[in-house]
Amino acid sequence: MAIVEDGFADATTIARLDGIPFQALGVLKQRGTNAISVATGVRAKVAEIQASLPPGMKVDILFDSTIFIEESVHEIELELGMAVVLTAFVCWLFLGSLSAR
């Protein structure tokens, strides 16, 4: 009697998510490329792959560092808008006009 396994080496690491074994894959952008566009492309490809998988299998994104980047850009846009409004308000309040003549 023998035990037959498919593989060349003993398993040294095991990845599990909620107790279920899974396969992990990391995607890194190349230097000089836009992280947001790479993440958008990966999300589109994951949705495409998910549609072609048999029932019971799924592809999911577990960690996405570009969410922080997108939120930071949104906050900067918000802060710049508030700065413009507050500057106009202060000019109007102290000078009686929106333009500093």
Structure summary:
With 101 residues, the chain is mostly helical.
C-alpha Rg (nearest Å): 26 Å
> Stretches where pLDDT falls below 50 for ≥5 residues?
none
Strand content: under 5%
Assembly state here? single chain
Count of helix runs: 2
Mean pLDDT across all amino acids: 84
Based on secondary structure, the structural category is mainly alpha
Biggest sheet details: 2 strands, antiparallel
- Intertermini distance: 96 Å
DSSP helix fraction: 40-55%
Characterize the overall form.
Answer: rod-shaped
| Number of distinct beta strands | 2
Major sheet strand order: 1-2
SSE succession? EEHH
Description:
- With 101 residues, the protein is mainly alpha-helical.
- The protein is 48% helix and 4% strand.
- It has two helices and two strands, in the order ββαα.
- It has helices spanning 35-52, 66-95; strands spanning 16-17, 20-21.
- Strands 1-2 form a two-stranded antiparallel ribbon.
- A hairpin with a 2-residue loop joins β1 and β2 (20-21).
- The chain starts with 15 loop residues before the first strand and ends in a 6-residue tail after the last helix.
Strand and helix layout:
Layout lengths: L15 E2 L2 E2 L13 H18 L13 H30 L6
Antiparallel strand pairs: 1-2
Which key terms come to mind for this protein?
101 residues, mainly alpha, two-stranded antiparallel sheet, 2 helices, 48% helix, rod-shaped
